[in-house]
Amino acid sequence: MSFELETAVNREGLRRVAIDPVSRVEGHGKVTLLLDEAGHVREARLHIVEFRGFEKFIQGRPYWEVPVMVQRLCGICPVSHHLAAAKALDPVVGALTLTPTAEKIRRLMHYGQILQSHALHFFHLSSPDLLFGFESPVQQRNIVGVAAAHPEVARQGVLLRKFGQEVIRITAGKRVHGTGAVPGGVNKSLTAAERDELLADADQMIAWSRDAVHLARRLHESDRALYDEFGLFRSHLFSLVRADGAMDLYDGHLRLRDARGQIVRDAIPCADYEQHIVEEVKSWSYMKFPFMKDLGPARGWYKVGPLARVQNCDFIPSPLAEIERQAFIAHGEGEPVHAPLAYHWARMIEMLHAAEVIRSLLDDPDLLSDQRMNEGTKGREGVGIIEAPRGTLIHHYRVGEDDLVSYCNLIVSTTHNNQAMNEAVRQVARRYLDGRQLTEGLLNHIEVAIRAFDPCLSCATHALGKMPLVVELLTADGSLADRVAHGG
Amino acid sequence: MSKQFLLDGQPVPFEDGQSILEAARKAGHYIPSLCWHKDFPAHGSCKLCIVKAAGRHVSACATPAKEGWEVESNTPEMNGERRGLLQMLFVEGNHFCPSCEKSGNCELQALGYEYEMLTSRFRHFYPDRPVDASHPDVLLDFNRCIFCELCVRASRDVDGKSVFALTGRGINKHLVVNAESGRLADTDFSKDDLAAHICPVGVILHKGPGFAVPIGERTYDTASIRSQKLKEEES
Asked: How far is B81 from chain A (nearest CA, A)?
């Protein structure tokens, strides 16, 4: 793998172009490009400009507070942090297994989260680029533009997300930042009325999710030259899989495939993650760079998220999504698909899988049972790993004799993709921007590449009170009267 | 015929010795409080029961009712005062409702909603108050203390243990544990003590349950603190 373009030589004489902030992603980041006099790209970096302090300030807090506190990392996928923390802390209350009710309600919550987050990303954040083109007028390139030009697509996107949010509300108590998962189980079951409320719409969600897969596939296949090549780079693929190799986004063991599709590490127990993954710090970003320890930083980095998961598993255990997975695999013609824009197609396959899982769980009478909690001999340490919408999410805690957290380590989905996103940025910069007059549309190519990964930059690191904000006061004729900027 | 005073224009009967707050609550009128408890003498420290009686601002819990008084309580002026007091209580401690297990059951939070407190208004003090997790059954999170002294009074007057005390003066006032080490584990405090069940905020917490009660079933999810307190008065 190449780290070319990460750091330019003789940086002083180069022209700096910044995309700040990167738009239509969650959280705040910026891209900097250094160009020479001829406009050739000499350096391209995705910077994460926020600082996260959660690992530190969670220390000294009681362990049972953690699943609720740490989910505040994020407003988009708090359920992932909520569940990863609860999973990590189950052994602390001695719950080495969960009751069927607790496990199924947590799964329902998680797949609701996958559904709403994937719908948000595809329809609200990415579809403007994909439907209108990367250099389309910026005034149109947003969800309002999609609603005007493709009202049914936008409507389905909004309602898919709404359904996912309702699943979360019913299982966690609130659409955002609920309290459903507690160490050892869950704090509520479903009532029959709640189950029926979700059942009323569940089949429609499967149908719409299937339509979304077909839309993403059509877009991809309609311009293979663009979709297969844009920002292309090859890397390992990393994710959880179930013991039998099935896709499982809630639990399983860790698996790594190489860029050619060969399984090179398999059945790694979650508790052993530290033996395999280390993180490198680079001075120019608050986000670390994880890699497989025995492969080293140059060869051991990898992709996570839908593109990795759909190809890392042996099959998807729901019928409609499995059919779509097979079509996706066939597209690679015997090789793994590494194209960043294929993330969208893979993401929609996962959304369909999530809709199918939700539908099948709703038939399960365990959801209505009061057998919600397990406990046993208390432990002092736990690792919880979950496949969040954006990829593998690792929470690791140690708890003292006094029940206070003494150690916390989080490796967040987007962090795993740090090197991959930087690589995509460099590929696009080299291919589309090098030597050309930069326009907004050209710079949007960089953002399109980043967006494909659906990064959650606020999860990967965390702002402490600094939001990038620019306020401009315009006169009646449109000229700038005043401008205030802070943060960022 | 019993004596009476007017509360916001409504006649409220009272008996000699009853405070304005006691008489009002008994008659079905809500005057807010945090430090007042029906089983203890009036304390008058939180000041949320502030009313205007005979033209003067007084604590309703500590002021005996008087025949013929005209008392203003549920007025924009008095409620504005209460909102200001609540804002001061919030900035004096470290109250992070989003991750507090007392959320939904906390009287301070419920009053914040009741009096439409939308901002903290004042500069936060961010006091440094380490938690005490030494006791096997109970955690003390001093960050949330509002100095109502209910635990001090319950431990001293009912439990007979005097486990808690306030120390320091003025802005440096804080709750301490009455042990040479300052640790709860080094007292005879028990999770069954009244003091372990009387905190109106999230200082004295029983270890373990945490967020066991789901959102929607917590005390103030279903009814406002106003109606909850009046219901308690009836029962």
From this structure: 29
